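Q: What structure does this chain adopt?
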Amino acid sequence: MEILWVLTAVIMIGFVLQALLRRRRGLVGLVPADHPDAADPATYGFMATEELDIRMPGPDQDLLNVLDVVQRTQDYRAAQQLLAGTETEGELRWQRVQAFAGAAALELQQWPGGVSEAPGGQWLRVWRTEAPKDPGGAAVHAEFLVQQAWRTSTPGTDDFRIIMEEAKDTCGQAALLAPGDPIPYIVELSVARGMKYSQAEFEQLWLKILDRAPAHMGAHLAALHYWCEKWHGSRELAYDFAEAAAARAPRGSLLAAMPLFAVFEHLPEVNLVRSFYQSEVVTKAVHGALFAVHAARPDDPMLAHVRHLLIFFLVRSERWSEAMSQLVHVDGHVGALPWTLSPDPAAEFAVYRALAVAGYEANGGSPATMPH
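A:
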């Protein structure tokens, strides 16, 4: 009991000292929006919190248009055509498969259906029934099942296992329909995590992906989860996986940012050491991600994912100007880590954005000196 009291006292002293140090150094803090000293993100052209799009990390107007048509008409054919015209090995196809699957899952959650009405996401069922040989429909169905398993049941339960087994079978069907397509195997990475594949089984699955799309950033992020400490690996295995991916990244590839995602996956739940975000491991990972962003194609579909995570780390590191330079590229869309881990992604993003603006202005910045 005495040890608990001592630990509690140490923690409280740490918080007090941290507050005093911040006050002495003139660092920023949040104040109410109507406070006279409150920074106003709107003066930088940033969107209002309620207007932020939580569905995607960045713009994809073609996808938004098709989603609108599909959900309004419950006709799958626009989605089928969009996927058929999207490069098989690219990141964009994977993001669109996830988006269609997520839309169907969300519809089913909102409108489960009853005796007199069709359940939400009925268009996906019709797609699979009317076009059973379509690889796009099979891939979306497999991802839909994976998302349903994680949304509606608990790993280790019979319900979870049954849905994941169906997802695995559907991945196999999708792979047979399009032998060169990496997406069925990328979907199966989540199955592997949920079904506790052995490391040897996982490696066999991973080799199939590398044979088809060795620099696929989305696949690497999905695989990283398996190697994390909270699932079936360790901090060391996750770091090794991420650093190996960064080391073999071709020029212009965002794989150089993988170590930053590994750091994020292993952040301490309670961090009492304020200098953690200025530590060597974080600084090195941030610099790698910044290098990747600067070298990447402006239209790389994964670029927004890296920028969003950089905003989190740059704000925590009090690198305000650099955080602002990332914000100008992604503001408006918040469907990415770390915001999607929050019950209210838009509000979470808005807090970090407000901190970046306040810190930028506290150090002499203004809309006139805004980095671009």
